[in-house]
Design a protein that fits this description.
The structure is a homodimer of 176-residue chains.
Chain A (H helix, E strand, L loop, with lengths): L1 H6 L6 H8 L3 H7 L3 H16 L8 H16 L2 H12 L5 H26 L9 H18 L8 H12 L10
GO molecular function (chains A, B): DNA-binding transcription factor activity; transcription cis-regulatory region binding
Keywords (chains A, B): DNA-binding, Transcription, Transcription regulation
Pfam families (chains A, B): TetR_C_11, TetR_N
Chain lengths: 176, 176
């Protein structure tokens, strides 16, 4: 993590990681077969602790909490250095698959928000949870990575409103 | 463009560009004061010709055409190499500003779609065109850059539907 944050992905090698950790290269390779796996592991570690899946009882609040956590992560320089590294690499193979698996895991975990909302009657049955969460979070990633605007106070609330509305969500208290 | 596509942004220098073009470095610096400016110019050139702002008379068709063009660009390896370069750099200064200016210009141009839709009664007065276009296109950028899924046949239509719905758009023919 330190090497990645200090020097970026283009200077990260298994050899350097092994030296910094004081272990043999084979020890690193056994758990992380490529630099891509190391970057994905760094992403996972940075996000998992600071981005739990909320369960507030309200779909609006769940989505607002989730997006607020993501915006908080995406405004941290250390996190952005790793996200930029993850976006920069185009090996068309091992790393692309690892990166995809990381984001698929996040989308799958977030799907619980949508499933609970469907059970409460706040979203229609059959709502595509991956598409809904993607619609919610993608503008945050695009702003952070390609940076045409920062995050204003209204960003989270207007994203939640447009997303819920776009997927026929019922706002307000759950159906009794 | 050739150097960028062949070697990526981390090996791009003004000196190499000047040598490849057979001109003095000062000649390059006069128009593109930094490598960031060169990358932004490359993005502009790649997107401007293949991504005109549609004007079909229907907001649904305009948004579908715009997003289809963007998806077509984001599935081209040469375009993605430039977009990944643009996302990778975090200089917190000159390049970030140039990159932001590029995307702001694209959002401003696309706003015409929203303005015409408001004039036709297909979207409410006061619709935030930047937010609407961002909601439409951000999932495409996130998928292309962080790659948890490819683009299926339904991607464009479902993105347009969720976006229009999310911003209270009236689908179907314009109000007479």
């Amino acid at each position: 993590m330190r090497l990645l944050l200090e020097n970026g992905h283009s200077n990260l090698t298994i050899r350097a990681v092994a030296q910094a950790a004081g272990v043999a290269e084979t020890t690193v390779y056994r758990r992380w077969p490529s630099v891509g796996h190391l970057i994905a592991a760094a992403l996972l570690r940075l996000t998992a602790t600071d981005n739990p899946i909320p369960d507030t009882g309200s779909v609006e609040d769940d989505l607002a909490t989730l997006l607020s956590q993501i915006v908080a992560l995406l405004t941290r320089p250390d996190v952005m250095r790793v996200v930029r590294s993850a976006a920069a690499i185009d090996d068309g193979g091992a790393f692309a698959a690892t990166r995809a698996a990381f984001f698929d895991a996040r989308f799958t975990a977030s799907a619980a928000i949508v499933e609970r909302a469907v059970a409460r009657g706040q979203l229609p049955a059959g709502t595509d949870s991956h598409r809904l969460i993607e619609t919610l979070v993608a503008p945050a990633y695009m702003r952070a990575l390609l940076g045409s605007r920062g995050f204003d106070d209204d960003f989270v609330d207007s994203s939640v409103a447009a997303t819920l509305h776009g997927f026929d969500g019922r706002t307000g208290p759950p159906r009794p």
